[in-house]
Amino acid sequence: MADVTASLSIGQVAERTGLSVHALRFYEQQGVFVSPIRRGAGGRRSYSQDDVDWLTVCIILRASGMPLPALRRYADLVREGAGNEEERLALLQEHHGRVTAQLGRLAQCLDLITFKVGVYEDLIDQKRHAAGPDRPRPSIGGDVPASRPGTSA
Amino acid sequence: MADVTASLSIGQVAERTGLSVHALRFYEQQGVFVSPIRRGAGGRRSYSQDDVDWLTVCIILRASGMPLPALRRYADLVREGAGNEEERLALLQEHHGRVTAQLGRLAQCLDLITFKVGVYEDLIDQKRHAAGPDRPRPSIGGDVPASRPGTSA
DNA sequence: CTAGGAGCTAGAGTCGGCTCTAGGTCAACC
DNA sequence: GGTTGACCTAGAGCCGACTCTAGCTCCTAG
């Protein structure tokens, strides 16, 4: 029972979350932490495991595009304590919807990119083989247009 | 044969691409167009269908996170004409990789979000039913920690 | 006892990607 | 002939999310 509820310095938290110390102070100032970060000797921040866990969630939410104000709002709700679970749920559901939508859009984009990569690959190894009389393939001008996918979106 | 190769005003292009006229001028200034936009009466921009097609591709690339400098680089290559297909391919492949990675990350994030939504849904309809003697579920303090997914990433 | 390293605060700076403003030109309508 | 309304240029401003700086306090090691 050594490092259970061990408290970490800002540098250690930075190291294990991948955030910069600047970002950690910035997040704190922005109110994304649920409980105030404790201070140790000389006013230094001392993060609990809970703080780090929460931070981990925050990082994932941020990575999925949740803006800081929404994150702060969520933190506010959690800080308020039990009783506002519907609001938290609503916030998360909304974010869930946005992430799902973004995934969809991204997948569509990927289709086009994959298509274009394919076209260039074909084009390039047609050149390599410097083939005979079979037509090189139509509709490549300066660049291929959006021909196949993406036209519908 | 009326509007084939019709040329469009900046306003019309804005309308059908969803970009603002400001953004269109900005993109032009940033060199993302392959050929210079023609000018009509009084120096007004006149977009060809090709311009709009290219723009459509650009929009998709941007939507998938390609930064403007990369887009410009791509446009530069296309403008140069045939002979640099390997470079174009490389650029697209790199972007393809990044988009794929981003999709993966986003999917992981979505897992956590889905999980948390699930937890709150359970929690809320347990409350609604105000059930009997079965324990409400452990490990919900202020908020559920990252318990299930995301812990590995 | 001093030099280095980690931390502190407040606030300025940066970057990407637009967005907006000021001041002007046209063409068309009333 | 005056007023819209769409367009023009050059350049300033904005927003989000950090990032960096200056000037300070500690603690520890040499």
Automatic annotation (TrEMBL), chains A, B:
Domain called HTH merR-type: residue spans: 7-77
Name listed for the protein in its UniProt record: DNA-binding transcriptional MerR regulator
Keyword Cell cycle listed: no
Any Pfam family the entry gives: MerR_1
Sequence segments annotated as region (Disordered): 128-153
InterPro entries attached to this UniProt entry: DNA-bd_dom_put_sf (IPR009061), MerR-type_HTH_dom (IPR000551), MerR_fam (IPR047057)
Keywords of the record: DNA-binding
GO molecular function term, any single one: DNA-binding transcription factor activity
Superkingdom as given in the UniProt entry: Bacteria
Biased composition (Basic and acidic residues): 128-137
